[in-house]
Amino acid sequence: MSPRPPHTLSVAPMMDWTDRHDRFFLRQITRRTLLYTEMVTTGAILHGKKHQLLDFSPEEQPLALQLGGNDPRELAESARIGADWGYAEINLNCGCPSDRVQSGRFGACLMAEPETVARGVEAMRAAVDLPVTVKHRIGIDDLDSYEHLSRFVSTVAAAGCETFIVHARKAWLQGLSPKENREIPPLSYETVQRLKQDFPGLTIVLNGGVKSLEAARAHLAWADGVMIGREAYQNPYVLALADRRIFGENTPAPTRREVLERMFPYVERMLAQDVYLSRITRHMLGLFQGQPGARGWKRHLSENAHRPGAGMAVLREAMSRVPDAVLDARPEVDAQTAAAH
User: What is the CATH T-level fold of the domain 9-245, as seen in this structure?
Assistant: First the structure.
């Protein structure tokens, strides 16, 4: 089976969630799924602690850096730094609706300024040889017509962007909180599908509301890729069969015990660097979502991982709260996938 494009399946950049510890954890579940950093602002990169913001483990690759900003020179310099750091892609955030992002005039409000986005993309492409991509909404506030969306994409594509990751829900910048905007207004997959029909030469990746590999595969009948967000964080084992079902790998999916045992050396390494255990394990709480023992696992970590001196014993004790049958169960491959191999 031939390799699939790199954007076939990815995990969305999510503030306070997709940090390096979460990405390393997810990488123990799926080797092929493209991962993204949290959004990092150009100001933070240019004037902040670069190592703290940008460091990652080689095992996290393929890994994309998501930038927040609007100034072409700052975007170009930040992209250059990201390329030197070893990232595989630079992504520009044009979808976040938070007040902090709006006050900096970037994120979703950039959808009202396609020319500004185009200048930023052009500057980043001139600065790096990496793919420069854009993640955006289908609209914002009253700028929610398909004509506006089409103009945004065509303007940015003319600057050289070939990949658009489209969150199929418009952003409300006034009147709704970002949390409320996760559910309101309704998703419109039809709008993203129309975009793909009208721009067949572009890579169009669907984002928003995808909660299973089965749903992702259905969308891949027309989309070039699918990005999974909150479900991949709250129920990370949903990705266990991604390498087989989406990318055509023959390797068996890891059991949850194998995932955890792969994490042990990393956790020990981070503990030796004075990283609190809870900084890592907070991303692992959903590993047993819907399984016997999930409550005991989460409770033990939540009550103990944050304590000073908490170490591997806490993690192993949390594992002991989960039945062996759950720890060692391997997800089933559906008949269609099995037949393909």
Answer: TIM Barrel (3.20.20)
**Type of residue found at 148:** H
Report the binding-site residues for FMN: 13-15, 66, 135, 167, 207-209, 229-230
Q: CA–CA separation, 66 vs 229, rounded Å?
A: 15
State the greatest distance between any 2 C-alpha atoms of the chain, in Å, as a whole number: 57
Residue 297: both structure tokens together: 């696992």
SS3 55: coil
Element (H, E) at 215: helix 213-219
**Catalytic residue (one of 94, 96, 109, 161):** 96
248-263 confidence digits (pLDDT tens): 999 999 999 999 999 9
User: What is the Cα–Cα distance from 259 to 255, expressed in whole angstroms?
Assistant: 6
Right CATH for 256-327 from 1.10.1740, 3.40.1130, 1.10.10, 1.20.120: 1.20.120
What's the predicted TM-score (pTM) here?
A: 0.93
User: Which residue, 23, 2, 39, 10, is CA-closest to 203?
Assistant: 10
339 band by pLDDT with thresholds 50, 70 and 90: very low
How many Å apart are CA 117 and CA 154, to the nearest integer?
11
d(CA 299, CA 261): 20
| Residue 94 designated active-site | no
